[in-house]
Amino acid sequence: MRVLAFGFAALFSAMFLQVPQVLAEPELKVVGTGDGLDMLQEIGAGFAAGHPDIKLSIPPSIGSGGGIAAVSSGAERLGRVARPLTDSEIEFGLVYLPIAKIPSAIFTHPSAGIEGLTSEELVKVYSGEITNWSELGGNDVRVRLVRREDADSTLQVLRASMPGWKDLEFFPRSKTALTTQEAISTAREVEGAVAFGPYSKELEDGLAILRIDGHHPTDGAYPSAVTLALIYKDGTMDGEMQAFIDYAVSDPARELIRNFGGVPAPN
């Protein structure tokens, strides 16, 4: 009986090994910055509707640096960044394809009671010189500062373009948000909070988008914006990657970028 059982088990194993294994289709992930994430996910949804055969994923932020590392190592095929590539990254074989310019925005929890600031007032807020919104004509609510890490793309653009930000030293008690989504959620949830990040029309829902020196982020005279770009490694282009890139610069995608408050990159 034991011999028979062993023989049956061996036969079953042999049959199982002969069954062809079905391999899962590889997923095309576009990884990296949180800047413009909602906009890019909408572009992805439009792409997926026309390409049901391609498994596309645009996951939460791992930062521009994370996207660069993933594509450089070959872990992922496509990345998204909100800063230019360095010379060494270009020499390593990364290709940079801008798709949109996204204004940087300063936004607050509605409890602040503020609609706009001068650039000088904004510096005083983030340096800690102003600690209550009532000092600026707002509500009697304590200012809760939310900043980003030094390498953040929006912060780098603000330092390069917003008056007074080049040498701005942040108030030590400010909170450092590690992703754009964390900065937004903190501003939505914490009374008196002020934060910054890439502008999108969805920010208008539940947040106060501040005019700076009288200019809304979508105004032509507003100084600060980041460029959202796709990256890939030279020599790795395949049909799925090319299809998504073609769609990301197509007329439907460009119209969607405009609807989100961005400016499509020149063709």
From TrEMBL:
UniProt entry tagged with the keyword Signal: yes
Keywords: Signal
Annotated PBP domain residues: 27-251
Transmembrane segments: none
One of the Pfam families matching this protein, by short name: PBP_like_2
Signal peptide: 1-24
Domain of life of the organism encoding this protein: Bacteria
This protein's record includes keyword rRNA-binding: no
UniProt-recorded name of the protein: Substrate-binding domain-containing protein
Origin species: Roseibium salinum
